[in-house]
TrEMBL record:
<keyword id="KW-0560">Oxidoreductase</keyword>
<comment type="similarity">
    <text>Belongs to the xanthine dehydrogenase family.</text>
</comment>
<dbReference type="InterPro" id="IPR008274">
    <property type="entry name" value="AldOxase/xan_DH_MoCoBD1"/>
</dbReference>
<dbReference type="Pfam" id="PF20256">
    <property type="entry name" value="MoCoBD_2"/>
</dbReference>
<keyword id="KW-0479">Metal-binding</keyword>
<dbReference type="Pfam" id="PF02738">
    <property type="entry name" value="MoCoBD_1"/>
</dbReference>
<keyword id="KW-0274">FAD</keyword>
<dbReference type="InterPro" id="IPR000674">
    <property type="entry name" value="Ald_Oxase/Xan_DH_a/b"/>
</dbReference>
<dbReference type="InterPro" id="IPR036856">
    <property type="entry name" value="Ald_Oxase/Xan_DH_a/b_sf"/>
</dbReference>
<keyword id="KW-0411">Iron-sulfur</keyword>
<dbReference type="InterPro" id="IPR046867">
    <property type="entry name" value="AldOxase/xan_DH_MoCoBD2"/>
</dbReference>
<dbReference type="GO" id="GO:0005506">
    <property type="term" value="F:iron ion binding"/>
</dbReference>
<dbReference type="InterPro" id="IPR037165">
    <property type="entry name" value="AldOxase/xan_DH_Mopterin-bd_sf"/>
</dbReference>
<keyword id="KW-0285">Flavoprotein</keyword>
<protein>
    <submittedName>
        <fullName>Xanthine dehydrogenase/oxidase</fullName>
    </submittedName>
</protein>
<dbReference type="InterPro" id="IPR016208">
    <property type="entry name" value="Ald_Oxase/xanthine_DH-like"/>
</dbReference>
<keyword id="KW-0001">2Fe-2S</keyword>
Length: 748
């Protein structure tokens, strides 16, 4: 059961959201037409907030718009009614008058011109970049764009707030990755201590980072509404509402200057990264921090400088998304690596391998990588697939025999760094009760969103107690069981909560030690029973903090991460050069997951992350309107599955092979395992570069040898136009003529 399956409570109302339809405007609101509708109970707005209307990580985002709106989808008010259809009809009856403030800042380029940024620039630098570039044999410069992505979780943002009727107590059930964030922001908005707010979650229907912070604005608005009428209030967003309000993956612009030798050795990189953060900070700064510390990917670059700036725009705040800035930084690097290889007329896999990190190498920010498994992943993949021999030969043979269909092949490495980039978040708690019948109730600060966290925590407990898993139960995640929790994010929940659970188990086992030693054959139930009669505490609280983490951003140096995960992927695609459509014939993935706690879950996570990465790199496109008489600049056009394409069953590889690398025990995590949620997402980059390889074959057949760029997402339209022939030339002229008279969309 998910949140919307919770039965209706007595007196429960439904909230209909009044959302901004302009990107930047002064507003006046008239709710009188809604309030006279039968079944409508009340209208809630900024005047009803008893506490602070400004919430969020930097307290820079309003619960309700106060006199003006700063982005599309901003919450103006909530209409409370007896059911959902009525609440939504009434919300549409609320009259909002807009006086536009021109021009809204929508794109990265808009923000750069306006000097409109969030926070300070982030920089990581090593070596002497200017000197190395001046002395380099070859230098290339260019730009790379990376598009955004919607989370498109199956369960949209949802919450149910129940006032308890005494001492200002409130219970919030929400679809969230951040139980404490919901509690904290609701308490702030209501103007009450956090100990009056209990935040709970049973499970959620997908999150991918989109429910780490963004659900807090909905739950706080609903908490204010429930507080006003002192009745339960529920909201579950429709898909179009969710896509319009919740933000997504940050679009990026990368500007690079790279120096290299004739053999393909990279000697210097000067990289500027810009992201579209939206109107408020949210998590944009730590996302950029991860981007600048991942832009080296697996490559040892002796002279390295990456500078990141977050652009403020009049769009909903972009937020955490699986990979958290890492994929954007890494794909930009792989794009210029590909260009270096083409410039030198060398196989791209040769240039990549030449520049790999090795054991003991330091990152540009000074952290040592004790065991670098990328070469093992790479070699395992080459050996398993016969990539350099039969596989490449078969692709070349196909392309010689076919004019309008071309195949492409690519192999891509990746490295992902594990830990929250904000040090204080690397902490975890757990609470464990052993009952006198021997059953165990386990609580921890992480929540279940389909990633198998609860299963792994039960496994840890089962192993420590030597008990069957069916004797251990996890009920829910709740702020009154484990306080001050970090969000379930950054792929490290198993690492941290596993250690906290183990701490609980170790304490209980130590207390049971006298009974186990006195009667080793008695068994668990008898030991527990005897301990109870001897008045031994059978409850334990566990806590864990990830050790040895620190970073100084003023110097760009430190020990930012706990450990590193490596992988490699190879993909073969077939592209229809007349339509741009493509089929993934085969993908082989090798992933370093340490000593896997549960190979079935981990392989599922690798496959799922790969598929989501496939959407990011090849098909999921967030389209914003330029604005004309009937639409507004910055309005999201892709607000549902009719206009926004996510990977379907027909889009995944015909043949998908996953190998978990063995012999990579990790002493930094529970039972020598490694994280698996985010690291595999970048493996899908092999599909993008396989498409690029097929396009290159098509262009070469037509005598086109000029360099070309395939930015992401590489949609069918983008692929078709990159193939270049007489038809694309005619189409390009048509697009140019249309754009000169009316531009429909804007690239944010």
């Amino acid at each position: 059961r998910y949140l919307d399956d919770v039965p209706r409570l007595e007196g429960e109302l439904y909230g209909g959201l009044v959302l901004s339809q302009h990107a930047h405007a002064i507003i006046s609101v008239d709710a009188s037409a809604a309030l006279v509708m039968e079944g409508v109970v009340d209208y809630v707005s900024v005047t009803d907030v008893p506490g602070d209307n400004m919430i969020g990580i930097n307290n820079d985002e309003p619960v309700f718009a106060d006199g003006k709106v700063m982005s599309f989808g901003q919450i103006i008010g909530v209409v409370l009614a007896t059911d959902k259809p009525l609440a939504q009809r009434a919300a549409k009856a609320v009259r909002v008058t807009y006086e536009d403030i021109h021009p809204p800042v929508i794109t990265i380029e808009d923000a750069i011109r306006a000097g409109w940024f969030i926070g300070e620039e982030m920089k990581v630098e090593d070596g002497d970049v200017e000197k190395a570039l001046s002395e380099a044999e070859h230098v290339l410069e260019g730009e790379v764009r990376v598009g955004g992505q919607d989370h498109f979780y199956l369960e949209t943002q949802a919450c149910l707030v129940v006032p308890k009727g005494e001492q200002e107590e409130v219970e919030i059930l929400s679809s969230t990755q951040g139980v404490t964030a919901v509690q904290t922001n609701a308490a702030r908005g209501l103007g009450i201590p956090r100990n009056r707010v209990v935040s709970k979650v049973k499970r959620i229907g997908g999150g991918f980072g989109g429910k780490e912070t963004r659900g807090c604005y909905l739950s706080t608005a609903v908490a204010v509404a429930a507080n006003k009428v002192q009745r339960p209030v529920r909201i579950m967003l429709d898909r179009n509402e969710d896509m319009m309000t919740s933000g997504g993956r940050h679009p990026f612009l990368g500007v690079y200057k790279v120096g290299f030798t004739s053999q393909g050795r990279i000697t210097a990189l000067d990289l500027k990264l810009y992201s579209n953060g939206g109107i408020s900070a949210d998590l944009s700064i730590p996302v950029m921090q991860r981007a600048v510390t991942h832009a080296d990917n697996v490559y040892k670059i002796p002279n390295y400088r990456a500078v990141g700036k977050v652009c403020r725009t009049n769009l909903p705040p972009n937020t955490a998304f699986r990979g958290f800035g890492g994929p954007q930084g890494m794909i930009i690097t792989e794009q210029w690596i590909e260009r270096v290889a083409e410039f030198l007329k060398l196989p791209s896999e040769q240039v990549r391998r030449l520049n790999f990190y090795h054991d003991g190498d330091a990152t540009p920010y000074g952290q040592i990588q004790p065991k670098v498994h990328v070469s093992r992943c790479w070699d395992t993949l080459l050996e398993n697939t016969h990539y350099l021999t039969t596989w490449r030969s078969s692709v070349d043979l196909f392309n010689k025999s076919n004019k309008w269909k071309k195949r492409g092949l690519a192999i891509i490495p990746n490295r992902y760094c594990l830990a929250f980039g904000i040090t204080f978040l690397n902490q975890a708690g757990a609470l464990l009760h052993v009952y006198t019948d021997g059953s165990v109730l386990l609580s921890h600060g992480g929540m279940e969103m389909g990633q198998g966290l609860h299963t792994k925590m039960i496994q840890v407990c089962s192993h420590c107690f030597d008990l069957p898993m069916d004797r251990i139960h996890i009920s829910e995640t709740s702020s009154d069981k484990v306080p001050n929790t970090s969000p379930t994010a950054a792929s490290v929940s198993t690492d941290m909560y596993g250690m906290a659970v183990k701490s609980c188990c170790d304490q209980i086992m130590e207390r049971l030690k006298p009974f186990r030693e006195a009667d080793p054959e008695a068994g668990w139930d008898k030991w527990v029973e005897r301990a109870y009669f001897e008045r031994v505490n059978l409850s334990a609280q566990g806590f864990y903090k990830t050790p040895d983490l620190w970073f100084d951003w003023s110097k760009g140096k430190g020990n930012l991460y706990s450990y590193f995960s490596y992988g490699a992927s190879a993909s073969e695609v077939e592209v229809d050069t007349l339509t741009g459509d493509f089929t993934i014939l085969r993908s082989d993935l090798v992933m370093d997951v340490g000593d896997s706690l549960n190979p079935a879950i981990d392989i599922g996570q690798v496959e799922g992350a790969f598929t989501q990465g496939l959407g990011l790199f090849t098909m999921e496109q967030c389209v914003y309107l330029e604005g004309n008489g009937r639409t507004q600049r910055g309005q999201l056009f892709t607000t549902g599955p009719g206009t926004y394409k996510i990977p379907a069953v027909s889009d995944i590889p015909v043949q998908l092979n996953v190998t978990l690398l063995d012999g990579t025990s990790n002493p930094q995590a529970i039972f020598s395992s490694k994280a698996v949620g985010e690291p595999p997402l970048f493996l899908a980059a092999s599909v993008l570069f396989a498409i690029r390889d097929a396009v290159r074959a098509s262009r070469a057949e037509r005598g086109i040898i000029a360099p070309f760029q395939l930015d992401t997402p590489a949609t069918c339209h983008t692929i078709r136009m990159a193939c270049e022939d007489q038809f694309t030339q005619q189409a390009q002229q048509c697009f140019t003529n249309l754009s000169s008279t009316r531009k429909w969309t804007v690239n944010v």
